[in-house]
Amino acid sequence: MMEIVSTTWVKITMIYCSKKKKKNNKKAKKKMMIYYLLSIIMIITIIMEMMMMMMMMMMMMMMMIMMMMMIMMMMMMMMMMMMMMMMMMMMMMMTTTTTTTTTTTTMMMMMMMMMMMMMMMMMMMMMMMMMMMMMVVMMMMTTTTTTTTTTTTMMMMMMMMMMMMMMMMMMMMMMMMMMMMMMMMMMMMMMMMMMMMMMMMMVVMVMMTMTIILMMMMILTMLSL
User: Fold this and answer.
1) How far is CA 45 from CA 5, 30, 38, 49, 52, in A?
2) Amino acid 40: pLDDT
3) Is the pTM of this model over 0.90?
4) Is 25 left (phi over 0), alpha (psi -120 to 50) or beta?
5) Taking the C-alpha atoms of 155, 160, 166 and 169 in order, what is their torsion angle to the nearest 10 degrees?
6) Which residues contact 104 (CB under 8 A, 6 or more apart)?
7) Distance separating alpha carbons of residues 94 and 105, to the nearest angstrom
């Protein structure tokens, strides 16, 4: 809009000058000077506005980069946490493996962990996608040349931050839940294994007793004969 106005101003001045050059009036000269001054002011204002817009754009970009960095850091932290937990679990499992029967449980644990990791990765991917989308939206917002959009972009940024926080919270909650579930399942498995072991032992004991009795009987019969 400003550009159009300025161009029109220049055109008007040019026409005015060409027309008034024939009549060398002082009034015309004064008017011409005023017109020129106005046009120059207009151009300067336009340049200033452009500069401001550029600055704003730069600021926005910086903000975006910062946000991205922050989120990346958070993700990294989460990943690290997960890894640590995994390691801990594994260590625990390793220490508990005194018998050969627990190997199955360890395997199960491993599988579970893998699943968890996969889930996490998926979540991360989703988050990244969301971020990309946000970036695009931000870029679209920044392309508008008016100064009013800055507030909206700021609002958007705030909203995005809030959303991200919410997402993080949700993720954390989910993780906790998953962990709890895993623990429960592990406990159950252990219990089951113990029960099975006990049963097996019982059976073995019974079998042993039976065989001993049978042997005794055989010996007795032999002796009697």
Assistant:
1) 12, 23, 11, 6, 10
2) 72
3) no
4) beta
5) -130
6) 193
7) 11
